[in-house]
Amino acid sequence: MDIIVMPTAAEAELLTARIIADAINAKPFYKLGLATGRTMENVYAELVKMYKAGKVDFSRVISFNLDEYVGLKGKAETNKDSYRYFMNYHLFNHVNIDKRNTHVPNGFAPADELDAAAIAYEEEMEDAGGVDMQLLGIGRSGHIGFNEPMSSFSSRTRVVTLTKTTYEQNSPLFTKPEDMPMRAMTMGVGTCLDAKRLLLLATHKEKANIVAAALEGPVTNMISATALQLHENAVVVLDADAASKLKYKEEYAFQFANDPKWAAYQPAKRKASRAKAKAKK
Ligand code: GLP
């Protein structure tokens, strides 16, 4: 696992957007797993900026979102509380992705069709050849997607019941907080682990404890994000606040600064001082 700590949330968001854009530019038919939540809003804003500056082309990207609420009224596209709406609003409406290639679990399916919709979602990912990179946030409960504590590491896309912690975290985001559903359809932990690469972003102090538990604590299904420790190609981007409780931050910083694969992502200042030191020799 690579852990990258940037001084500010803005820098962490920009770095995350750059990793995504570079991956798409390297392989245009990219299968991109996407996430929602406050943490991602600026990542998508940065990607929109990059698209408008001609730096990234989404025309052949196929996307799969992690999750969607179950029990929202009306249509996914028009219900402002849906994750489909979130994605259209923050990203899809502003870039050249073909909306037919964007997938969000169908939490709006009729009650007796939800299980079939979850299975169909897994099949769609499989038919696309699997997800190349899955973007992840982390909830205060340690969830990735909506995989609440006690989710099996082999779980697949399914309907889950949310925890009190998640209700308290997410209900303020609803038009009417009491309208937040108690259930959601989410990719499983096993589904996430199948992605070729994982990219988790966490920012701000409120995530510091859960980030430390997820990255440096024992692997446990009480904290779904600890599953990242089992993945062979996981990247975690943090701001200094979210990283503040990590025990080995200096080691991660040292590795990041010296790993050739991250050379192009070094903060400009550090690159400049290295160039200066070289010039002096
Ligand atoms: C929701 C999503 C998660 C996301 C989490 C983090 O619960 N289902 O996928 O990681 O929010 O939220 P925020 O970024 O708002 O802290």
**Main sheet?**
7 strands, parallel
Strand order in the largest sheet: 1-10-9-6-2-3-5
Quickly count the helices: 9
CATH architecture descriptor text: 3-Layer(aba) Sandwich
Distance between the termini: 34 Å
Bound molecules: 2-amino-2-deoxy-6-O-phosphono-alpha-D-glucopyranose
CATH class placement: Alpha Beta
Q: Which residue ranges are poorly predicted, with pLDDT under 50 across at least 5 consecutive positions?
A: none
Strand content: 15-25%
Helix content: 25-40%
Based on secondary structure, the structural category is alpha/beta
Set out the fold topology.
Blueprint: E1 2-6, H1 9-26, E2 31-34, H2 38-52, E3 62-65, E4 67-70, H3 83-90, E5 102-103, H4 114-127, E6 133-136, E7 158-161, H5 164-170, E8 183-186, H6 189-194, E9 197-202, H7 208-216, E10 234-239, H8 249-258, H9 268-280
Parallel strand pairs: 1-10, 2-3, 2-6, 3-5, 6-9, 9-10
Antiparallel strand pairs: 4-8, 7-8
Helix pairs in contact: 1-2
The structure holds 2-amino-2-deoxy-6-O-phosphono-alpha-D-glucopyranose (GLP).
Can you walk me through this structure?
The chain has helices spanning 9-26, 38-52, 83-90, 114-127, 164-170, 189-194, 208-216, 249-258, 268-280, and strands at 2-6, 31-34, 62-65, 67-70, 102-103, 133-136, 158-161, 183-186, 197-202, 234-239. It is an alpha/beta fold and 281 residues long. A seven-stranded parallel sheet has the order 1-10-9-6-2-3-5. It has a three-stranded antiparallel sheet with strand order 4-8-7. Helix 1 (9-26) packs across helix 2 (38-52). It is globular and about 70 Å long. The protein starts with a strand and ends with a helix. The protein binds 2-amino-2-deoxy-6-O-phosphono-alpha-D-glucopyranose. 2-amino-2-deoxy-6-O-phosphono-alpha-D-glucopyranose binds at residues 35-39, 66-67, 137-139, 145-146, 166, 170. The site of 2-amino-2-deoxy-6-O-phosphono-alpha-D-glucopyranose has 14 residues, from helix 2 and helix 5.
